[in-house]
Amino acid sequence: MADSPDQLKDLASGEVFGTLEERYQNSEFSRKLWERMGEVGLLGMTVPENYGGSGGTPAELAEAVEEFTRIGCDLGLSLSWITHLALCVKSIEYFGTREQKEKYLPLLASGRWVGATAVSEPGSGAHPGGIDTRAEESGSGYTLTGRKIFVTDGPVADLLVVLAATGETEEGRKELTAFLVETDTPGYEAKPLELTFLKTSPHGELYFNGVTVGSGSVLAGRGEGHTLVSKEAFARERSLVTAAVSGLFSAASKEVADIYRDMYKGMDFPGTEASSWMHHLSAIEVYRMVSTEMVEASFIDYERWRKSLGLLIYLGLSYAKWASWIDEFTTDKKLNPSFPLDIMLNDMKLVLVGGELLLKEGKKLYL
Question: Is-catalytic flag, 356?
Fold first, then answer.
């Protein structure tokens, strides 16, 4: 867990919130803040102390993510934290060799390094059948060739978990293997992508132009990249994102209420509006509690999480509706979405994008 709840609150309310507007305008990922997050134990939450982590349970991590986002109002930085920990750090902790854990986990948990995971590719997203990046055996290792896109933390990462095809299975499907790639390896290149939202979380397009790694860079085992590393990692990430979004919505709701109260000298809603407001705020509180349960399942019992996929789809679609509702409310009431509400409303685009993706999952599952 973080060294203390007070440290998390002080960091979120002070350095994070205090620099948010400037960092957002400059599309800045702050290494200084990242190292501070490492110092207070956030980047290594749930990682054992003997590997440089700060311990803690998945439920405590979910609560920390929610509170950090609610107080700091920085969904971008929270997303960078989530992907670093859920996709990269935990994959190494769960499936890495002792040498891999001892080498990388202390660097990642301390904030000295940033971790990212490169799966998505142009035209196919993260679908395993569309992975065209290849890893060919060469000497005592592998040579990676390919391109990844929309990689969170990609432009600033020191270490990547890269999913690549290493052949075909007996069933004729692509054999996918995960590799640990240090970003100072020759042949690697990262180009930043300019997003109109989440401006404090860098996203990038990554190129592997004959990147050679040793056999000791394989994470888990050959052919186990998607089954053990990718599927479980994305379960952790998506569940933690629901926790972060509940924090963002709580902060946005308070900001909207404060602006409304100042403009209209009270919160005297008519009956239907009052009912709608209470419904949404009550729902957010329920979503927060459910998100904690989802995070616990994704970390501890993947099969249980997978059986709850319908719940995740429901949460995602509900969040998307809530984001649209509060944006419409702000417009209808002619509220001035100045800082920090303007940033929070802009970052809610992540919820709308996620809602579309989960809608596709729901169609496959139910239709």
Answer: no
